[in-house]
Amino acid sequence: MLSEFTEWLVNLVKAFFGALWNFVVDAFIGLVELLVTALVSLVSAIPVPSFMSMGLQSFYGQLDPGIVYLCAASGLPGALAIIGLGYGFRLVRKFVTLFQW
User: Fold this and answer.
1) What does the pLDDT profile of the chain (101 residues) look like in tens digits?
2) Residue 86 to residues 23, 47, 80, 81: CA-CA distances in angstroms?
3) Contact, 73 vs 65, CB < 8 A?
4) Every domain of the chain and the residues it spans
5) Which terminal residue of the chain has fewer beta carbons within 10 Å of its beta carbon, N or C?
6) DSSP-derived secondary structure letter, 47
7) Do 90 and 99 touch, CB atoms closer than 8 A?
8) 101 contacts 94 by C-beta, under 8 angstroms
């Protein structure tokens, strides 16, 4: 009878600390959610510059033709494409390995 009571008491204490740990984890997740929501609202409050309000095409359309030629001749579009592909590969790798790398 006494062993059953102590076993019940040990299980009760384990359940209490398990519930307390779950409460702490949920509170931390709630705080992180509030922080991310505040960060998103802060970033969305930043106004778009006037030269980019119509997109990048209008920005590139306003460039001098000489600058556009020099960028194309130096291979800048290809270099930016390779950098973008590398960054995309890194993000995909992070998601596939569940942020272990």
Assistant:
1) 888 999 999 999 999 999 999 999 999 999 999 999 999 999 899 887 776 677 767 777 888 889 989 988 999 889 989 999 999 999 999 888 887 76
2) 40, 29, 10, 9
3) no
4) 1-46, 54-101
5) N
6) P
7) no
8) yes
Question: What residues contact residue 59 under an 8 Å CB cut-off, 6+ apart?
Answer: 51, 52
C-alpha separations of 26 from 12, 34, 35, 47, 73 in Å: 21, 12, 14, 34, 55
Integer Rg of the chain from CA: 28
CA distance 101 to 94: 6
Whole-angstrom distance between the N-terminal and C-terminal Cα of the chain? Answer: 53
Q: Which residues contact 93 (CB under 8 A, 6 or more apart)?
A: 101
pTM: predicted TM-score of the whole model, two decimal places: 0.47
Contact indicator for 72, 81 with CB cutoff of 8 Å: no
